[in-house]
Amino acid sequence: MKTAQELYTDGLRDHFAPAMRALGLSGWRHTFSLPDESRWALIGVVRRPRCDRVSFTLDLSLTGKQDWADSGLPGLRPDPRVPHRVETWRARIGDLLPVADEMWWEVLPGPRWQVAVEDAVAAVRHYALPELLRLVDRGRTGETYLARADLADVNAALLDASVARIQRAELADKSLVLTGAWNRADPVAREVLQGVAEGFLSAGDERFRTVRCVDTLGRELWLFPDE
After folding, report:
1. What is the C-alpha to C-alpha distance for residues 187 and 157, in angstroms, rounded to an integer?
2. Is this structure's pTM higher than 0.85?
3. Strands (E), the chain
4. Which of 31, 121, 179, 203 has the fewest CB atoms within 10 Å, i.e. the most exposed one?
5. Rounded to whole angstroms, how far apart are CA atoms 224 and 210?
6. HEC readout, 20-56
């Protein structure tokens, strides 16, 4: 009987990777990429071997290709399994599933070992891939309000207040949409970002009337001014 590690290797090579390519992604082994001219939209397989089984999950990330090239970090493209602070979005597959919790599949020796791999493919098909496509499409159609360099002063102020930086500032539907790794339950982040929003609104830019703050999964957090 094959070991769990051997079955895991077979599952990725013979089932998971071909399924990813059938869904339109390219890649092999543990990293797969959705084709896009300006962004690295990636899915990475994170493995956690144990004595009698192999557990694995999926990490997803979105990184501007020019941002990656300018970063000076090693590699032709990012590794979605490794946070590098250049990405504009990242998530673990459990964040996208209805359970919104950690999700690890387990490959164990036995007749049903392949179920874990098939379930992971289904998670990509129904949750991970649609989210990547949504984010890539939003990046194509949205208008960037401030580039990363232009946000440096604002992000420095956020850092001083121990609040996560603004990852993106885009215009959509008469709103300025600020994206960052914030949490609705954090009153400090809300207060500081309200001040940031008021600063943006005071500029009198006719392209937006409100400032929306969303988390890295695109979930609405706060709207300023309050309705």
Report:
1. 17
2. no
3. 26-28, 31-34, 39-49, 54-64, 89-92, 105-107, 143-144, 168-172, 175-179, 210-214, 220-224
4. 203
5. 6
6. HHHCCCEEECCEEEECCCCEEEEEEEEEEECCCCEEE
What is the per-residue pLDDT across 51-81, written as a single tens digit (0 to 9) for each? 889 999 999 999 989 889 988 898 889 999 9
- The correct CATH number of 143-224 out of 1.10.10, 3.40.1130, 3.30.300, 3.30.710 is 3.30.300
Amino acid at 106: E
> What residues does each domain of the chain span?
4-141, 143-224
Euclidean distance between the first and final Cα of the chain, in Å? Answer: 63
Matching residue, tokens 């979005």 = 89
Helix or strand run (H / E) with residue 196: helix 187-201
Confidence tier at 142 by pLDDT (50, 70, 90): low
Question: What is the spatial distance between Cα 13 and Cα 35, in angstroms, rounded to a whole number?
Answer: 20
Instruction: Please report which confidence band the pLDDT of residue 109 belongs to, taking 50, 70 and 90 as the band edges.
Output: confident
Q: Find out whether 142 and 171 touch, Cβ atoms under 8 Å.
A: yes
What are the tokens at 2? 């094959």
Per-residue pLDDT reduced to its tens digit, 119-129: 999 999 999 99
Q: From CA 157, how far away is CA 152, in angstroms rounded?
A: 9
Nearest alpha carbon to residue 104 among 3, 8, 15, 6: 8
